[in-house]
Amino acid sequence: MQNTQAQWLFCPVCNHKTRIKLCRDTVIERLLLYCPKCRKEMLVNVEKLNIDIIKELDAQTQSR
Prior knowledge:
about 0% helix, 5 strands
């Protein structure tokens, strides 16, 4: 088994940790990323731990 170290995915807006861990060779297209610290949602592509923001969305709170 190959020894790959996982790293936290950081928010591109506030630079804090999100709840997602990635390996170095992970490729993700169109991930809806939510940051619990700054409460922003954004659509991102991730390749080799580099984050490209596609579109920044407004997080909506749900009310009952």
